[in-house]
Automatic annotation (TrEMBL):
Superkingdom to which the source organism belongs: Bacteria
Domain NADH:flavin oxidoreductase/NADH oxidase N-terminal: 17-69
Lineage: Bacteria, Pseudomonadati, Spirochaetota, Spirochaetia, Leptospirales
Keyword ATP-binding annotated: no
The organism of origin for this protein: Leptospira interrogans serovar Grippotyphosa str. LT2186
Family recorded in the similarity comment: In the N-terminal section; belongs to the NADH:flavin oxidoreductase/NADH oxidase family.
Protein name in UniProt: Pyridine nucleotide-disulfide oxidoreductase
Keyword Iron-sulfur: yes
SUPFAM superfamilies: FAD/NAD(P)-binding domain (SSF51905), FMN-linked oxidoreductases (SSF51395), Nucleotide-binding domain (SSF51971)
Keywords from the named record: Flavoprotein, FMN, Iron, Iron-sulfur, Metal-binding, Oxidoreductase
One MF annotation (Gene Ontology) recorded for this entry: FMN binding
Cofactor(s) annotated in UniProt: [4Fe-4S] cluster; FMN
Domain spans labelled FAD/NAD(P)-binding: 116-367
Amino acid sequence: MLVPRGAWAKISGKIKAKVKDIPIIASNRVNMPETMSRILKDQEADILSMARPFLADPDILNKIKANQEERINTCIACNQACLDHTFKEQMVSCLVNPSANRELELSKLKKADKKHVVVVGSGPGGLESARISAIRGHKVTVLEATDKIGGQLNLAAQIPGKSEFLETIRYFKNELKNLGVEIHFGYQATLDSILALKPDAVIFATGVKPREFTLPGIEKKKTASYADYLSGKFQPGNKVVVIGGGGIGCDVAHKLTEEDSSTIDSYFHRYNVTSYTNAQIQKEKPNRKVSIFRRSGKIGSGLGATTAWALLQELESKEVGFYTSLSYKEVTDQGLVIETKKDGAQTIECDSIILCAGQLSEVSLYEEFKSKVP
């Protein structure tokens, strides 16, 4: 996801300018019509090669022909269910299209006797549940507590290189509108308010919440969850501690050190793409000092093999500190105190702390509903 759309077509364009009689094919990160048109218009290729976009939306070309570009389920280039699964010898699918590689199985789903389906929550799970329910012929009502759909996709889209998640939200927004799905915004769902809608079925897609984490003295520093930071509710200082070194912690560290996504030119410069002698990423002075902490295991160990190396390389080039195999002791006026077997107790200076210590499923309403409704 760090690679800008159509970036490698700049290279194929240079080849095409020199090779006149052989058709040139451009591939990778060609996922939307405007990128396709630009590459062909700028004569950077004769033919476009696409693979992942067809997993995300097998009808992408038909939608382009029908001038229905707003209905395209855009490939977000995450690699999580396609390439990462391939290298682990698992079944290939798609993060934004769970029916990919299950077409024969899911094509057996028949039109249902029409019922009223209420979906609580409009994150990706709720949105897809609403879409499929509507396709099967049900009347669908979505209850969303905030003023927009997407759930934590809205947070993920704030990470540099991950704005493609906004395309997923755009896709669902248009699909649900076309299918006649009714969405209630600012709706604080309760047992009584759900039952008042007289549903025949209720789907709970209420997502997750940040796991709470505390330490003695933590109130001495500006502290927030990753959700508050990514939503713009929290402004960190210049020396930031990130507690939690999984995927979310790495993404937060990335945003802390680089606010914006790369352009093609800035990406090529940073990765020395056109250099024949230097294949190393350009180190850049970070806009703040960031340190990531994880009790055990490697930083970013849960990231996919095809993307982990690039993200970790980004963080290292911004001088992000990695601390693992440790215990948290306290927070003092100076910073976070940790202890390791090798170095004993040490204090890492900071003025802000962002908590990325995991997530918990938000199931309280579901559990209440299940216990009181037959």
